[in-house]
Design goal:
This protein is an alpha+beta fold. It has 3 helices and 8 strands; from the N terminus they run αβββββααβββ. Keywords: Signal.
Length: 191
């Protein structure tokens, strides 16, 4: 049996070329919600779906910290809808005020991609503790096509991000959307 596997591997390596299909995925949000649980901590919370200059759907979110917010963490949940059932793919809490918590955001491909794009498009993950009377925002948030690994399937998904301050849920952000293959499927020859 081992000889058969070696023979198949040798045949694959000796073939002059083979085609590998590549495709890119795009996250398309179709609904977002924000809820302020602690108006004494945050004001002017707003979430908006809009189109950017390239006619892509992007997310904007704004709020003002009413007071300095210490001991802040983010509870992150990523749910995938397959058929009629929902699978909780990730459910983690990150202490964003510590280096360990910031590093933990980098541990998983999903949280890494989302946190990198949030950092590029806003200041929400830049300050900790959150400063009193400061405007925090994410403008033009979009997960770039090259950021999503090609092995991810097309799917419907829900992203839930809870901002927790001193063990109190302060704010909830919900994004509903789907990942879809975009552009043409290209092929390349591997010698």
């Amino acid at each position: 049996m081992v000889g058969l596997y070696k023979l198949l591997l040798l045949l694959l390596l000796l073939l002059p070329a083979h085609w590998i299909a590549e495709s890119k995925l795009n996250f398309i949000p179709n609904k977002i919600e924000c809820e302020n649980y602690m108006p004494t901590f945050l004001t002017n919370l707003a979430c908006v779906l809009k189109s950017n200059d390239l006619n892509e759907t992007v997310i904007d979110m704004d709020f003002i910290a009413v007071r300095e917010l210490n001991n802040t963490s983010v509870s992150f949940s990523f749910n995938v809808m397959i058929g009629k059932s929902t699978v909780n793919y990730i459910n983690k809490r990150f202490d964003i005020c510590t280096r360990t918590g910031q590093d933990a955001l980098e541990d998983h491909i999903i949280t890494r991609v989302i946190s990198e794009e949030i950092k590029k498009s806003g200041n929400i993950l830049n300050d900790c503790p959150y400063k009193k009377n400061k405007h925090y925002y994410v403008h033009g948030f979009k997960v770039k096509e090259h950021s999503i690994p090609p092995y991810f399937p097309e799917m419907n998904l829900t992203i839930t991000i809870d901002l927790v301050t001193n063990r109190r849920k302060t704010m909830r952000f919900l994004a509903f959307g789907r990942s879809v293959k975009v552009g043409k499927i290209t092929s390349r020859i591997i010698p």
